[in-house]
Amino acid sequence: CHVTYMCSILPVYILGLYIIYRHTTVISIATCAKTLNMKVLGWSFLAVAAAILSSNGCLATKSLSLDGRPAPNSPVPSPDVLAWTKREIGAFYSFNMISMLTNISNTQYFCLGVGGSGGWVPPPDTFNPEKLDLDNWLQAAVAFGAKYAVLTAKHCSGFSMWPTDILKETGFNYTYSTKYSSFRGGGYDVVKEFVDSCKKYGVLPGIYYSLNQNYYLNVRHGTVHNGSLVPGQEKVSQELYGKIVLAQVRELWSNYGEISELWFDGGCSVPGVSEQIAALQEELQPHAVFFQGCSKENNIRWVGTESGEPKYPIWSTSDNCATGGTGAPAGNTFCPAETDTTLQEFDHWFWRADFPIRTLKELQSVYYHSVGQNTNLLLNTAANSSGLIEETSFVRYKEFGDWIHKCFGSSIAEMSGEQSSDPPLELSLPSGDPFLFNNVVVSEDQTRGEAVLEFVISAILPNQPVYVDIFSGQSIGNKFILNLKTPMTATKVLISVTKALYKPVISKFSVYYC
């Protein structure tokens, strides 16, 4: 790296010195002249230059490059997965046949069992959200800062919210869809309206397809159960079910343009289908990320809880992308985690009038535990039975989005840096007048993989000459946020990367107060 100095007055004296940077590189954003600490280790031969800087407002920076860095020991993300991590926040739309059945309190009714237990399949005409407005849904997503959105095109009931027609491909007439509902004249395509609204509001569309559960076809955990059927269920073979899945997935991935995220709840465990689905994804949606590990390279994983508050540390790599969880340092696959959670309390995904919603404080905690711990946040938005987001929910989404912008829209100070030698990287900001802060944000450049294994955040307090450690951590990944419950006043904040798989690059190190 070369050093660039920017000052209003720049007297430079070239000295004949043999110097080596001391074992830890220190980069300081300062209001004084001292910007680079170097240690003279010997006088064996005449070498390089040192600069003596004078004036106010002096700033030292390093021009950083990835060129010449050694190959990391960790797996490298695909460009599509890396881009996905930077989106950070998405919206999840839980809306399907169960949304119409407001007399059923258990909104996971169709996901919990198979036929033969006194249940029934509601007829297609039951689906009739008379005020359905996908623009309203996307406005809610934009309100809390979502960059992508995922629609439950087909949930556990098996009802398809597009006019699916796979008779030619499978020989089976799939009658449980909007094609056979009188909603808006029959054959209405909710998926198309969703994708069109996404484009209108600049949000990337994603599609959820319930692969392992289909109540209409009496399928649970990917297996067809051909025992006793309840009214409205259809009898199919395991082989035919596999053909139905592949035909419907082809429809969804072929007819609506580029899809950013493909969501298979519980993975893709239908016998004989997983490899064919991976091939379809590569053929039809090569740039989509794949939730639950069915793709050849664009995998993302479930974080392992729907509470919205997974346990730290959370790694970008894992030894098994399909099982979910917090991952493993130096795992064999780069498949970062997604934290899916609800606005309604107690893990309720589909709307009910009597389900309370989370407070703003609770959503703030979710943000710190998800985005602030190296995962994307996928926040549920459940429209009511008429097809609209409730006003109370909309207000809460906007409060949440406004809080994120207020807290993290503008930093007190920020910088970046790359380790230039084997010992630990240190970055510090800023020194001078005391400042109040309660959030420290660190982001790692993961272009070549996740490098950081351990780090320490320290601060110099007013009238104290030495650093005091305020946090010791492990994973950084796309973003780590240290949220101090009690704001702190300091004159300088420091991050020290003390253990890494290879030379780390900190793409952003910043402090905030809100």
The overall pLDDT, averaged over residues, is 84
Uncertain runs are: 1-72
Fraction of residues in H or I helices: 10-25%
> Helix segment count?
9
Radius of gyration: 27 Å
What is the distance, rounded to the nearest whole angstrom, between the alpha carbons of the first and last residues? Answer: 35 Å
- Which descriptor suits the 3D outline? elongated
Q: What is the tally of beta strands?
A: 23
What would you call the quaternary organization?
Answer: single chain
Structural class based on helices, strands and sheet pairing: alpha/beta
Strand order of the largest sheet: 4-5-6-9-10-11-14-15
Outline the biggest β-sheet: 8 strands, parallel, barrel
Beta-strand level of the residues, as a percent range? 15-25%
Task: Explain what the structure shows.
With 514 residues, this protein is an alpha/beta fold. Helix content is 18%, strand content 25%. It has 9 helices and 23 strands. It has helices at 79-87, 97-100, 134-143, 167-170, 190-201, 238-254, 274-284, 360-369, 391-408; strands at residues 2-6, 26-28, 59-63, 89-93, 148-154, 204-209, 219-220, 223-224, 261-263, 289-291, 299-302, 317-318, 333-334, 337-341, 375-381, 413-418, 425-429, 435-444, 452-460, 467-473, 480-490, 492-500, 505-512. Strands 4-5-6-9-10-11-14-15 form an 8-stranded parallel barrel, surrounded by 4 helices. It has a 5-stranded mixed β-sheet with strand order 2-17-22-19-20, with no helix packed on it. Strand 14 (337-341), helix 8 (360-369) and strand 15 (375-381) form a beta-alpha-beta unit. The longest helix is centred in the C-terminal third of the chain and has 18 residues, at 391-408. It is elongated and about 75 Å long.
